[in-house]
Design goal:
The protein has 11 helices and no strands. The protein has helices spanning 3-16, 18-40, 47-52, 55-71, 78-85, 89-123, 130-158, 161-182, 184-187, 191-195, 209-233. The protein is elongated and about 60 Å long.
Length: 236
């Protein structure tokens, strides 16, 4: 089967599963709400991160979206039926990853723009400049997309949404901060801290805004390749 109808089928699956639609909405709501709270009480010297700090929580919804979109295939005989229609597992997983990435990117960009406008309103003259803010909004969309795909790749390996969230939620919310306190040089290359460099006005570290996103992209590529390898080697 050609790629386009496979992608269309995967998109139908995603938009008809209510939990997935709910997690996409949660990406927007959580990011905007917590960013607004942080901006309203901000007194720091990094106006860009004060504007976009809610991404730290919004990313959990993106992780849940990516993981759930993949692990729903492992319930019952869903994956077996899918592979009967699309025997090429690499093509199917590429379509699944694309069907995950496109809506997350769209929601992430909208989230970034809404967060930027609200942050500039709340911070006033202390807020980020438009060029800096637009960089943050674009980075917000790209980062959330990469994190969702990272979760999708890991979920394909573990075949469990609970296990995937059990690893990624502590990694994103706890581990990177603990390691960051102990050794900032190592922590800079973790997927979340590297990707969120684009959300800082002036960050001391080894990575810049776009090199940080590139490092997160490498983490994501490794996870997706591991997912493809697992799908090819294991029974449905």
């Amino acid at each position: 089967m050609p790629f386009r109808p496979v992608l269309h089928a995967e998109w139908i699956k995603i938009r008809t599963l209510r939990p997935l639609v709910g997690t996409l909405c949660a990406v927007l709501v959580a990011t905007v709400a917590f960013s607004a709270l942080a901006a309203a009480s901000s007194g720091g010297s990094d106006p860009l991160f004060a504007t976009f700090s809610g991404v730290s929580l919004g990313q959990i919804a993106a992780v849940a979206f990516g993981a759930t979109a993949v692990t729903s295939e492992f319930r019952g005989a869903a994956l077996r039926l899918t592979l009967c229609a699309v025997p090429d597992r690499r093509r199917w997983f590429a379509a699944k990853a694309t069907a995950i990435a496109l809506p997350v990117l769209a929601v992430g960009l909208v989230t970034g723009l809404v967060t930027l406008m609200l942050g500039r309103f709340l911070l006033g003259t202390a807020g980020p400049t438009w060029p800096e803010g637009l960089r943050g909004a674009l980075g917000c969309g790209v980062y959330l997309t990469l994190i969702a795909l990272f979760a999708a790749g890991l979920a394909a390996v573990l075949r469990s949404g609970t296990a995937t969230l059990g690893i990624l939620v502590p990694l994103l919310l706890i581990v990177s901060f603990v390691i960051g306190d102990l050794s900032a040089g190592i922590a800079d290359f973790l997927p979340d801290r590297a990707g969120q460099a684009v959300l800082h006005s002036d960050r001391d570290g080894a990575l810049g805004p776009w090199t940080g996103l590139a490092v997160t992209g490498l983490w994501t590529a490794v996870a997706l390749l591991a997912g493809v390898r697992s799908l090819r080697r294991r029974d449905a």
